[in-house]
Write a structure and sequence with these properties.
119 residues, Membrane-bound Lytic Murein Transglycosylase D, Chain A, 2 domains, 4 helices
Length: 119
């Protein structure tokens, strides 16, 4: 009876298998990494294509802009007066700041700015 018990124990023990660290990574970690990369790629793909029609839609009017090069001594006040003489200068300065992502009023000679097109 001890031989039959040992045969059954060996059979039951050999029926299951044990994975080492590399095997666990291969069956668990690697698929998780692949799924994460695919999910990130899908998010980038659908995110970029999801925003593209909104940016290119005809629903929003596109304001005309021009580029100017800042000269020595130029200020936003003076540039706003030259480029948009019919609109209030404060509004023109704010618009120039938005178009160029300016944090302050400091300008450098040679800097290229987007300004609203003059009327």
């Amino acid at each position: 009876m001890s031989t039959a018990a040992s045969v059954q124990t060996r059979t039951a023990g050999s029926a299951g298998f044990h994975l080492n660290r590399r095997g666990r990574f291969l069956f668990v970690g690697f698929p998780v990494i692949v799924l994460a990369v695919l999910a990130a790629a899908a998010a980038v793909f659908f995110g970029a294509h999801g925003m593209a029609p909104a940016a290119a839609s005809d629903d929003q009017p596109v304001a005309a802009v021009e580029t100017i090069t800042v000269n020595y001594g130029d200020t936003l006040w003076a540039i706003a007066g030259r480029t948009a003489p019919d609109s209030p200068r404060n509004e023109a300065i704010l618009r120039i700041g938005e178009l160029n992502d300016l944090d302050g009023g400091e300008l450098q000679p040679g800097q290229v700015l987007f300004v609203p097109a003059g009327s």
